[in-house]
Design a protein that fits this description.
2 domains; 11 helices; three-stranded antiparallel β-sheet; 331 residues; BirA Bifunctional Protein, domain 2; seven-stranded mixed β-sheet
């Protein structure tokens, strides 16, 4: 295979030297570097190479690819500069009007979701995206040895002044700040960006958005939590929305539950986690100066991207961040 790569590079560069027009260059690019070109056709054959030879063959594949791309770019600039100068369009024709703008689908979803909870009596609370360990972990009953604090699970900031800082990993940090500022009864939502070093796939991203809900008062129970979440789902998605709660675990709630919704992912209907919820842990109430013997409360956190995926039938979370205008203008 190494000899075939040498021959392919020699043939390609030899042909490239004899091309001087733009059309010929494009035909060459398609033949050698295109998605169905000769170089691309050799890549699947790596699996036929022995384990010992595979590193050398893989390295040579990359070298040939880079060599052809570099030669193509150099030749293209020469061909472009030598092309005849003249107008390529009729400059007297009327211009094409620009398309109208629209809100990003995530901004739209956040506004819609916040409006639904506002109708249930939830006020808006805000907090910083750069957080300290107390609000992101300690006050949420996450002990120092908990794996959620590991460096591989968070974006810690080097050289932080006044103690270790990180990009917040959840909007639950805002509930602590809200409880510190306002005593019960308290009913708020917080919506914004959070950060976790997740591997990017159809349902995960390293930066995403959450909405956090918190209700603290006397006599609040799990039935209240289930009612507000099911009411939200059926208000926002319609009466046919399929939602379920299943037992879960979070250090800051007890008991805890996961919230799932049925949605289509890559042409298949499946249960996808929207977030977590539960009754606020007594330790969390105490850390914010609220007496757990007098007050109870619930909290929930929902993923905005997954809500938007279910609402608009989007199968891949990564599309939100590709900035493809053809996709974004649909909303």
């Amino acid at each position: 295979m190494l000899s075939e790569l040498e021959q392919l590079e020699s043939d390609a560069l030899g042909q490239l030297d004899g091309i001087s027009d733009v059309d010929g260059l494009e035909a060459w690019r398609i033949a050698y570097l295109g998605s169905k070109g000769r170089l691309k056709a050799m890549m699947p054959r790596l699996k036929e190479v022995s384990r010992e030879e595979k590193p050398a063959v893989g390295k040579r594949l990359n070298e040939v690819k880079k060599s052809l791309e570099t030669a193509f770019e150099a030749r293209k600039s020469t061909a472009s500069s030598s092309a005849s100068v003249g107008p390529t369009v009729d400059v007297t024709e009327p211009g094409i009007g620009g398309g109208g703008g629209c809100r990003h689908v995530l901004s739209r979803t956040m506004a819609e979701v916040a409006e639904v909870f506002a109708r249930m009596g939830f006020a808006i609370a805000e907090g910083p995206e750069v957080e300290d360990e107390r609000h992101n972990f300690t006050a949420l009953n996450i002990p120092p040895e908990h794996p959620a604090r590991d460096e591989i699970e968070n974006f810690y900031l080097a050289g932080s002044e006044g103690g270790l800082k990180l990009l917040r990993s959840q909007t639950s940090t805002v509930q602590i700040r809200a409880m510190e500022k306002q005593k019960p009864p308290l009913r708020v939502t917080a919506i914004g960006r959070v950060y976790r070093p997740d591997t990017h796939d159809a349902t995960h991203y390293s930066m995403f958005h959450q909405i956090e809900g918190l209700y603290i008062d006397r006599g609040v129970n799990m039935v209240d939590l289930k009612t507000v979440l099911f009411q939200f789902a059926r208000t926002y998605f319609g009466e046919e929305a399929e939602v379920r709660m299943r037992p879960g675990f979070f250090p800051f709630t007890e008991p805890s539950a996961e919230i799932d919704m049925k949605m289509r992912v890559k042409d298949e209907w499946m249960w996808v986690e929207l977030g977590g919820c539960g009754m606020v842990h007594p330790n969390v109430l105490s850390s914010a100066g609220i007496d757990p013997e007098e007050y109870t409360g619930y909290a929930f956190g929902l993923g905005i991207e997954r809500i938007a995926m279910r609402k608009y039938g989007i199968p891949d979370l990564r599309w939100f961040y590709d900035n493809d205008a053809r996709f974004l203008r649909q909303f």
